[in-house]
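## Example pair
The file below holds two records. Each record gives the amino-acid sequence first, followed by its structure token line.
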Amino acid sequence: MALIKNPDADIRKSWKLWTEVSAVATLALMIMAFVFFPDLKNQVVLKSEVQEVVKVEEIEVTKQEVKPPPPPRPQVPVMVPNDQVMEDEVVYDSELKVEDTPPPPPPVAAAEEEEATIFEVVEDQPEPIGGIGAIQSKVVYPEIAKKAGIEGTVVIRAAIDEKGNVIKTVIAKGIGAGCDEAAVEAIRKVKFKPGSQRGKPVKVWLSIPIRFKLK
């Protein structure tokens, strides 16, 4: 069923009229406002502040006078007798005396030759008589190391001659507290079976570990 709109409720008939009436009324109100209220304007009032004038006093720059240093005092020559001058002179003796010659330097070649004759590796290495236990039995544990609780292994390099004697020692690894010296002393107390090269006894370097352990 189609809807039928009431002609009296149709506002499209009078919208043009009402628009014109509203525009005329708006213009009339604006004209009346300009006619009856001509003094309503935005006026900006600027206030001028009086600035204080600060006077800067000029300070005169004073110059400091630098006094020149005093002149040096003139040196007065002092007469010295000829005898006194002769006493200050040093007379060198140009004659070479035999007793003043320095002593000859110690022979270095002999020590180097002896060091060179000690072998590092040979066919038959030297061995301590009684084994490594013979050396350990002669180790005296230092008291200072015991109190400090120091333990470890000291490695001593010992040079063994053709007769099985220790002729030289070097501390390769130490732990301190007197243990290094105790290991060297124990090694020197032991006799060794000498090392040999091609059936002939020779001097050989041997690394010996000495263990320090608290019970």
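Second record, same layout:
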Amino acid sequence: MIRILAPAKVNLSLRIVRRRDDGYHDIESLVQKISLYDRITIRKAKEPGIRLTCSDPSLPSGPGNLAHAAAQLLLEASRIRDMGIRLHLDKTIPHGAGLGGGSSDAAAVLMGLTTLLDLSWDREELADMGKEIGSDVPLFLYPSPSLITGRGEKVQPSPVLVNAVYVLVFPGFPVSTKWAYSNLRLTKEPDKYTISSLYRTAGGALPPDQWKSLLVNDLENVVTKRHPEIGRCREDLLSAGASASLMSGSGSAVFGLFKDRPAAEKAAARLMGDGSRMTKVALPIFS
């Protein structure tokens, strides 16, 4: 049996470069893993087949769950048949929040099963496998922070570090990634969608007075027009003392950057509101 943590991510910057002929979009994004985790238990079983249980009954337990799909793909690629695998997913990262929970679960299963079954797949091979499951899966197989391009499957180390304490606010409803991208209108000049020179020239930790200049999300306007509560969450984070705030990915979660943990904890307590929001404090993962 093996237990593995699957961390959430936030998009510190998300620029949509263009719509591809295959219907997907090329992106450029600076991604930071954070200390908000799903927990996955993987064990062998005598009865053949993959069985998944989950603490969140609203999530699928079959191949529609990316953790299950990852296990199935790895066994097929390894030509392993008639083996029993049991997965239990203790879900903490909200789904439909733009925090990459499903993709992180898939990456964790790929790594965990490779260890449990003593397989010889290396990280690059697992990343190639992971992109068949979802564009975000490869980034969770590499150190953080990362600069991702293409559909999100091309991962390289980031030259920029943001050593902040994160306050996450989940407004209580999911946003469809497919809907967000399909409603995006690329009306700006193409050069507005190229990566900031800050990425190319900065090195090491970015000082707090430059955090705000880094944060941009080309999906934020289209999503907040339909879901104004997301914009209110961002405004509330800034009012509570965040140095900068942004929607992560396609939403609906919003994060604020704080210089220290006491200020972040104070803001999180203030933002709990009527209980419809989920508020968490998390630290960056630099590995």
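Notes on the second record: The chain has two domains: 2-157, 160-282. The chain is about 30% helix and 30% strand.
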